[in-house]
Design a protein that fits this description.
alpha+beta; Aldehyde Oxidoreductase, domain 4; 3 domains; seven-stranded mixed beta sheet; six-stranded mixed beta sheet; 28 strands; about 30% helix; globular
Length: about 725
């Protein structure tokens, strides 16, 4: 069997060792004092017992292969991670090629607890943040090996040697030698030389990191040669489509199996506990057979009868009565209740957010082939968690995970959706004994999605006679504890007494991580609420936030930057208003300003311009960082103005983009301006920080324009008209 494109093909452990006549550089999980060609190294104080790994190979032709551990789903991590290694290696970028790393989490896993070797996952905007230091050390180590070999070959002190792109230079004589030529005589020392942070480049000398450079994946994506799982063609491959439970937790019974089996091209019918799959020679035939199925679904599921439109009233009553299934104290600083009770003025507000679907560009799909004896398998998957999906396949096949050859493909968007969906195809492929391509239609993806949860945010604050916030209470209500409390902390605002509590309710609905997770709902509520307080106090919302940030100079600089960019306070066109919000995510901080207009007859809000400033530590790829900010802003506007999943009688009411609208080009802002704040701090999470800005910023602009608050996301036309009508 052969994948139709070798760009993302895996490599074997033997290839690590043999390296096709080149050099392979191996480091420990901590990238310090490693061993060579050994699975384990001797335990010392400087080098604990860790797995060893390979990141760099250099061929005799000078080509440098760097192995990418992260999923590439449009965010540019494949290029950024390679650039970090190439920077410290002092590689000629034109001689660098990038391959997806094989699924070995002990080697290529994300950095957790200060060491590489955690799970292989591309989530939470952790990739650059998690790999940055370790990969710098890996590149520096490979460079040191090259220098040592040349020093020995030329019989010169290593201190007399420097590197230029893919070249070692003797400073005194001017003699040069390319990395490819070094390979022809180089020997790998055992152990490899120790490297520390003192061996790393001065960032002031960076030529790749922090500079504009082409992304590796773009040419193939533009010319159509990039390989996604859906492009995979395997000899003998068949197609599957699946009807999944319309109410989560219900089980299927096929009523017309005989009729379905007579469908054109049908190969088999496969029953699972949550649905029924049909397998056919073509995808069209599979879809037709699927449509013909008459399925009776079981009764008694927890989600049965659930109506999401009633949730907000239930949450309000639940919070008021303290009657949740579970109440958890998330944050307690001081005595917020006491302070608020004695405040000069008390403010309160309830803010709501609907369920959201991921709506990624590429619906879920994969190819799985199971050996005839069922003892091995191969999979082609675009996933954010390759080790998780590989292990899922192994589990349902009851084989060791090492028996699953896993090919990681490009992803057409993720946002938290692209993982944990591989077991279905493995079950189907095992039964039909043929390679199976399982494709989710857009309707499948929306109606059997895993959604950002619905939530209530109840906020209460007390202010003194100068308008300063002295106490803050935040009650969060909704399903799924993992997804609700992100972003509730506001360390950048000087509010001495704060309390945050979580009230949980379980509706039996599938929920999952969605871009920015809890930060979206929580930052919307916080920033809209602060805007309302400032408005009532007759204080400019920018000036008010400056006051709140009096003890946070780093954050104040970001706020001031966006105010300057947007010409805050300058005259604005009639019928328009600006709104401001601040957000954080994963150690990054951002402030954003929007300029909106409102059609009072239709209730349509139009975002014309957006400005945002962000401090995310060292920026590895500036253009890509800007694109990440822009993408988050556009997605934030889309979720703020359009997107909503609703349930009635336990069933999702939306099915495609006609009733789950997302932002179209005609709705996009006329301009988005991004400023990257220079920083020498380590990189922090960037991919999700801008999205939470939009809810609060648009709400604050609307308040300025109309004097009325918007408190229920999304701000659809009907909701806006209702607010305008009072």
């Amino acid at each position: 069997m052969k994948k139709n494109n070798d760009q993302t093909a895996g490599i074997t452990r033997r290839q690590f060792v043999v390296s096709a006549g080149g050099l392979g550089f191996f480091i420990t999980a901590g990238a310090i004092t490693p061993g060579f060609l050994k699975r384990r190294i001797q335990t010392t104080a400087e080098s604990p017992l860790e797995e060893v790994t390979a990141w760099v190979q250099i061929g005799k032709n000078g080509m440098i292969t760097i192995f990418n551990p992260a999923a590439e789903m449009g965010q540019g991590s494949m290029t950024a991670l390679a650039a970090i290694i190439a920077e410290e290696l002092d590689a000629d970028w034109n001689m660098v090629r990038i391959e997806n790393a094989p699924v070995i989490p002990a080697i290529y896993g994300l950095q957790w607890g200060g060491k590489l070797g955690g799970p292989m996952m591309t989530v939470g905007s952790r990739t650059i943040k998690g790999y940055y230091n370790g990969l710098r050390l890996a590149g520096a180590q490979a460079r040191k090996v090259l220098l040592q070999n040349v020093a020995e070959k030329w019989q010169v002190p290593i201190g007399d040697l420097i590197t230029e792109p893919s070249t070692v230079l003797h400073k005194i004589s001017g003699r040069k030698i390319g990395y490819g030529e070094i390979v022809s005589f180089a020997k790998i020392p055992n152990p490899l030389p120790a490297v520390t942070e003192q061996d790393l480049k001065d960032p002031a000398t960076f030529r790749l990191v922090g500079h504009v450079m082409p992304r590796f994946d773009i040419p193939a994506k533009v010319n159509g040669s990039a390989s996604y799982a859906i492009d995979t063609q395997v000899e003998g491959m068949v197609y599957a489509s699946m009807s999944r439970s319309p109410i989560n937790g219900t089980k299927p019974q096929l009523l017309n199996e005989k009729e379905v089996r007579e469908s054109d091209g049908l190969i088999d019918i496969v029953s699972l506990d949550h649905g029924i799959a049909v397998v056919a020679k073509t995808y069209g035939q599979a879809l037709k057979a699927k449509k013909s199925m008459q399925i009776k679904w079981s009764e008694g599921a927890k989600a049965e009868g659930y109506d999401s439109t009633k949730s907000f009233g239930q949450y309000q009553a639940m919070v008021t009565a303290n009657s949740s299934d579970k109440i958890k104290v998330v944050l307690e600083s001081g005595d917020a209740a006491k302070v608020i009770k004695s405040a000069s003025k008390v403010y309160s507000g309830d803010y709501f957010t609907d369920y959201l679907c991921h709506a990624q560009m590429e619906p879920l799909n994969l190819v799985v082939s199971v050996a005839g004896d069922g003892q091995s398998a191969e999979a082609w998957v675009g996933t954010q968690m390759p080790d998780g999906d590989r292990n899922s396949i192994a589990k349902v096949l009851n084989i060791d995970e090492s028996k699953v050859k896993f090919n990681t493909c490009y992803l057409g968007g993720g946002f938290g959706r692209r993982s944990g969906f591989s077991s279905e195809a493995a079950i189907i492929a095992k039964q039909v004994k043929l390679p199976v391509k399982l494709i989710w239609s857009r309707e499948d993806d929306i109606q059997y999605g895993a959604f950002r949860p619905i939530s209530l945010q109840r906020l209460k604050a007390g202010v003194d006679n100068k308008g300063n916030i002295t106490g803050w209470q935040h009650e969060v209500a909704g399903p799924d504890e993992r997804l609700q409390t992100g972003g509730v902390k506001m360390d950048y605002y000087s509010i001495p007494d704060q309390s945050v509590r979580l009230h949980l309710a379980d509706h039996g609905v599938r929920t999952a991580f969605w871009r920015s997770v809890g930060h979206g709902p929580n930052k919307f509520a916080q920033e809209a609420f602060i805007g309302e307080i400032a408005y009532d106090q007759k204080i400019d919302t920018y000036a008010y936030r400056r006051r709140l940030m009096k003890d946070s100079p780093r954050h104040l600089a970001i706020l001031d930057k966006v105010a300057t960019m947007s010409k805050w306070g300058a005259p604005i066109s009639k019928g328009r208003a600006k709104g401001l919000a601040f957000s954080d995510y994963g150690g990054s901080y951002t402030a954003g300003v929007v300029e909106i207009a409102l059609d009072p007859d239709s209730g349509q809000i139009r975002v014309h311009h957006v400005w945002a400033a962000v401090d995310a530590g060292v920026i590895v790829q500036p253009n890509n960082a800007i694109a990440q900010m822009e993408g988050g802003i556009v997605m934030g506007i889309s979720s703020t103005l359009f997107e909503s999943i609703t349930f009635k009688n336990g069933k999702v009411q939306q099915s495609n983009f006609h009733d789950y609208p997302i932002l179209r080009m005609a709705d996009a802002p006329e301009s988005i301006e991004i400023a990257l704040i220079p920083s020498s701090l380590p990189p922090t999470s960037l991919g999700e920080v801008s999205l939470p800005l939009m809810g609060g910023a648009i709400a604050n602009a609307f308040l300025t324009l109309t004097g009325k608050p918007l408190r229920h996301l999304p701000f659809t036309n009907d909701k806006v008209l209702e607010v305008l009508a009072g």
